[in-house]
Design goal:
Blueprint (H helix, E strand, L loop, with lengths): L5 H20 L2 H4 L3 E7 L2 E2 L1 H10 L5 E10 L2 E11 L2 E12 L2 E11 L1
Parallel strand pairs: 1-6
Antiparallel strand pairs: 1-2, 3-4, 4-5, 5-6
Length: about 110
């Protein structure tokens, strides 16, 4: 049973929006606050994502974020990203809440 609050959901969506905005603006630094320092992307260090987003630059992408589940201090979200440089992706992000708030610990994605 989850004890997640509306505030938890709002904070999770705020963190997800940092990521989505960073994708659209092409700024790894802009999305960096959404991620835990030891986060990974498909098993690689998260810096790979930041570097790639910065190198790619701005794009005309659209995103939808769905909170799939929240249990205590763990959450899973799905980000559907359309037209990221002409390609579509689905991400699953695992978040963990600590004393500093919600942070993405892992991002796994695939093209669709």
């Amino acid at each position: 049973m989850s004890n997640a609050t509306v505030k938890d959901y709002e904070e999770i969506l705020r963190v997800a929006q940092l990521y989505v905005d960073g994708c659209a603006r092409g700024g790894g630094e802009g999305m960096k606050p959404a991620f835990h320092a030891s986060a990974t992307i498909n098993g690689a260090p998260i810096q790979t994502l930041f570097d790639g987003a910065t190198q790619a630059g701005p794009t005309d992408s659209r995103a939808r974020v769905d909170v799939l589940d929240v249990v205590n201090d763990v959450a899973v979200i799905r980000v559907t990203l359309e037209n990221y440089f002409g390609a579509d992706y689905v991400d699953f992000h695992v978040l963990k809440k600590d004393e500093s708030g919600w942070k993405i610990l892992a991002k796994v994605f695939t093209g669709v």
